Every structure is written in C-alpha cells, then in structure tokens.
Amino acid sequence: MSDLHIVDVFAREKYAGNQLAVVESDGNISREEMQAIAAEMNFSETTFVETRKSPYRVRIFTPEAEIPFAGHPTLGTAHIIREHVADGRPDEVVVDLDVGEVPVEVHDRDGAETLWMTQQPPEFGERLDHDRLAAVLGLDETALDEAWPVQVVSTGLPTIVVPLVDRETLTAIDVDRAAYDGVTGDREAKNVLAFCPDPRSEDNDFAVRVFAPFYGVPEDPATGSSNGCLAGYLARHADGGGTVEARVEQGYEMGRPSLLHLAASDESEAVHVEIGGSVVPVARGELL
Q1: What mean pLDDT, rounded, does the chain reach?
Q2: What are the distances in angstroms from CA 229 to CA 12, 63, 83, 235, 263?
Q3: Class of 123-275 per CATH?
Q4: Is residue 126 annotated as a catalytic residue, yes or no?
Q5: Beta 123-128 vs 112-118: how paired, if at all?
Q6: Which position among 45, 50, 249, 274 bears the catalytic label?
C-alpha cells in the first residue's frame, strides 16, 4: 500500500485551483501501473515520490502520458514532501524531475504561505502565424493582439503563447481540435496558453486559459509550467522588458479560480523565471 494525497494547487481555498494526486510510491510502482493510476485519478496530473532523501525523485503523469515537467505538480508535490516525507518541514525542497533538479522555497506572501519554484531558463522557439492560432482557438484573427508575437516558449514543457486583445475574446475560446492537431502535430509544443491584460480582479495583472488536449487535458485550471513560459515571454517582449512581477488568474471558466504569482528577469544571456502559489490539502488515504 502507498499513501495517497489530494491537494489543490494555486488555490486560496479548497475546491479551487488545480487538483493534484500525490502518491508516496517509494519506487515500488511500475511505470505501467503509474500510468493506470493517473488515468484512474483523471486529474490533469498525478505524481509519484520515488525517494525519501533530497533531491526527491518525482515522476509526473497526465491521464495519457508521462511528462518531464509541470508546474502545479512540482509545487503540490513539494508541499507533500515537506509535510509528510522530509524531516523538520524544511524551507526548501529540491525535486528531481526529468528536466533536472527544481528547487522549491517557502515564503510568506500576502499573509499566506506560498511555495515558489525556480524554473529552467526559458528557451524561445519559433514564431507562428496569428491566423493559425486564431483558428485553433475558434476565434477571428482580430481577437489576437498583433503587437505581440505568437511564440513557442519552453521552461521544460513547451507552450505556444498566444496574446489576445481582451477577456471577451478569452472567454469566447472554443478550441477546434482539427486545427489544434494541425498546429501541434509535428511540434513538441502541445500546450496552448492564451492570455490578455484584462483580469477580473483589480489586484491581478493578466487572465489566462491553457489547453492541452494531446495530454488528455481539454483545459487546465492552473498551469505553472505554461505560466512560467508566459513570465519569460513577458520579460523578453514587454515594452522596456527586463523585469516582470505579475499576478495571473486562471480557471474561472472551469469554476476552479486560481491565482499564480509570476516573477521573471531578462538577464541578457538567459531569463530567470520563478512561479509561486499556495497549496491547500483536500484528502489523504491509501492506494490498495
């Protein structure tokens, strides 16, 4: 038997943010069984903690496939390691993923305990035509902001970043699966992040939606990896560029309101990216 935890990540209360199942597997579960468990959980991701010493080896599965990196699973798993695996609730947990070691630190922000991870320096890939991504999102070309590029960015899991003009267009998205497959089929980037500078809350800076049908995730309520790509994209392309600190809302269209903190700085040779958020425990049990 293995201990099982369910948490909500990038959430300020239970039943918000992005759900995550974390299994303390101790390396005793085969890859095939891990994939079956992820499909059974049917969350965006399920993680498996395979070691009990730092750096903690962790594997991440969507319902469809194993992936090398994802943001909310990294933060949520670090929370579980800190609370249930590591000795003494350390202020830093180093998670060993397929993309490398990712440090997660605990800070107090706005009166709440917030976990922050430093992502891999973003790689800036090809730019795509605005009209192709408009078709993917089921929108008119005028819905995309021509002042910003549509670009593939990766901090470990490639994302196509798509700028929209306002929240009305963000809300109107209706993904065309055939157009999505046409754009992503021969590319490593399978996540599509659409964003606009038109959030619901005056406290926030951007509203975001993320779609990843390839991974069995039609829409994701909170996506740390893709928002890390957005942070790097903003630092590289914003007027004046250089440094970005932003609050991002996601998941509202799904009834799972989420809050992500973004920080990035363009240091000429590389962009430094950090993503922060809170983790709320929901349930604990055992896999039989």
Answers
A1: 95
A2: 23, 23, 28, 10, 11
A3: alpha beta
A4: no
A5: unpaired
A6: 45
